[in-house]
Amino acid sequence: MCAEIEQEHFKLKTNGVFKTFRGQQISVEELDRWKNNIGTIISINSFFSTSCNIETSLKFARSCMISNDMRSIILEVEIDSSLENIIWADISHRGHFKHEQEIIFNLNSLFKIVSVNFDSTFQLWKIQLKTTDEGTDNVEQYLSCIKQQMEYSSPIVYFGWLLLNELGQVNQAEKYFQMLLRSLPSDHPDIPSVYNGIGRVYSERNELDLALANYEMAYKLWRERSHSNPSHIARSLHNIANIMRDKGDFDQALNKYREALTIEEENHPDDNLQKAIIIQNIGNTLIEKGDLDTALDCLSRALDMLEHILPEQHPKISTCLGDIGSVYEKKNDFEKALDYYHKELDMDERCLPSDHPHLSRDLKKIVITYKKYEKVDQALEFCCQKLDLQRTIPGNNHSRIAKTLMNMATIIEEKSLNKAVRYYQEALSYLQKSTQIDHRTMAECLAAMGRLYGMHKSFDIALQYLLEALHLHHIFLSCNHLDVAYVNQLIGICYQNTNNKSNALHYFNESLSIYRATYGVDHEYVKLVESDVAKLNGEQQECINSTAPAEEIVHDEQSITIIVHSDLRESFIEPSSSTTVDSITMPSVDQKEMNDEIETPRKSKNCPKCEIL
């Protein structure tokens, strides 16, 4: 059909500008989406039919009864026949209803939204569009980029990567890759790529051991297949290096990255996407090692390469901008860091869906840097601006709104417990509204509330939130997930501060076992918890030989009612009315300030690893 439309198009001798129309009904949410995107260029991913006869289009617009959640609209399309990249045809002579004067546009035609207004004459909404070729170069660049990536991945596997990278749909990507693993023969050429995709899913969830197992399986299978593309080997080495870096083994990670880069440079002497990403992650690893100047050189080289081979606006470019921002943040050059972080967020907002998790990640980096820069008011104002905008975006945007509210709570938590708690509770309320509840973010919010109450010495209340968070983590995460270790550590700190040493030891040891399994014995997180355990053992040696009754610990966890599908606010304990929470000072404990203790285990998000398909 595409070819037929092109043939008809080139038969036409039309010049100048003329208008066509389309009448239909759309939902109120979809109408709001049109209103919020005036000036935006859109691509219609189907054959788009219009009519030169406005009366025909009005009949279609009014052909159905309109309910409270539906609206009649008429699309008015201004066609500039001089545009070579907009393919359309008059197919009136082919239809049964020649009076409709039907004009059809080819797949992926580009239009600019000019205006959205209520037309009092026709008593319906009018959306004005005009044909454009403004985005043609970007589309061609994007398709060229996809073609390059498809050299390393078949279409069926690449679809899973689109779910994961472009849409941020981690759960859907996992289901898709697992379906491929079940349905494809074991000797199918795509099986290593499927394991690679599953590894990436686990990496995204911070399930490092599971990610490593799948990456190593992909590497093993590609090594066994003599016909394998060397770039597949390089890709596996790179992904294994990512996990080594996450585990804190930076030297081993650098060795793997450099081995992968050598393979890529031998096979692709020119600029190449995989080379750029490997160089970028070498830079990120050097940030972790504190070699900031060399890291900046690597990241700048990667950025130049990405800008040369990718469209001007692309998520991989934005991530590299954010990585450069993290170098300046480490250098305490907060002004430059903020400049790069804002560029990252601005680009991601143009490139990614409104519910993509990277948007919340970008905002969090900006908030943290504003706080370090001692510009709390600017941080809060920026979040408020983003929150107002997010609330106008139709669709299932609740998780992103919740994360913005959590960022706002983080900004003011040291000054006002009450306000911070209100932000956290509003965040939980939004998470409850979501059609697909984000249990991990919900658990993170509960843990953040527990940490907040701990900062303000309200340890009993802190424990209730932390135990609730731990319960959710046990349901939805693996038992050795780092988030489980983190919450166990917070619970141990709370018990330590309430002099319940047996329970404190229990939760510290739970945390310690996960940290040791993930990072090895020399990592700073391991040493921090070991020092807590040693201190408790020194104070109460009998805790080593006596086991706290299982009923006591289980009772603590079961005493918290986990409310998943009702209003979570009802299960929360509010701050005591007799406590002036705004004037509470940070608790003083022997090993560190409470805030420092609790923040330390958090894995840095300043340098997110970049992935290769």
Q: How is this structure best described in words?
A:
With 613 residues, the chain is of the alpha+beta class. 61% of the residues lie in helices and 9% in strands. The protein contains 26 helices and eight strands. The protein has helices at 2-11, 28-35, 54-61, 136-150, 155-166, 170-183, 191-204, 208-224, 230-246, 250-267, 273-289, 292-309, 315-330, 334-351, 357-372, 376-392, 398-412, 417-433, 439-455, 459-476, 482-497, 501-519, 524-539, 542-545, 550-558, 594-599, and strands at 17-27, 41-44, 48-51, 70-80, 88-90, 102-105, 109-119, 124-131. Helix 13 (315-330) packs antiparallel against helix 14. It is globular. The two termini are 33 Å apart. The model is unreliable at 1-13 and 546-607 (pLDDT under 50).
Under the CATH scheme, the architecture of the domain at 451-607 is Alpha Horseshoe
Question: Could you give the order of strands across the largest sheet?
Answer: 1-4-8-7-2
* CATH level 1 name of the domain at 451-607: Mainly Alpha
β-strand percent reads 5-15%
Q: What is the overall number of helices? A: 26
Percent helix range: 55-70%
Précis, in short:
This protein has 613 residues and is α+β, with helices and mostly antiparallel strands. The protein has helices at residues 2-11, 28-35, 54-61, 136-150, 155-166, 170-183, 191-204, 208-224, 230-246, 250-267, 273-289, 292-309, 315-330, 334-351, 357-372, 376-392, 398-412, 417-433, 439-455, 459-476, 482-497, 501-519, 524-539, 542-545, 550-558, 594-599; strands at residues 17-27, 41-44, 48-51, 70-80, 88-90, 102-105, 109-119, 124-131.
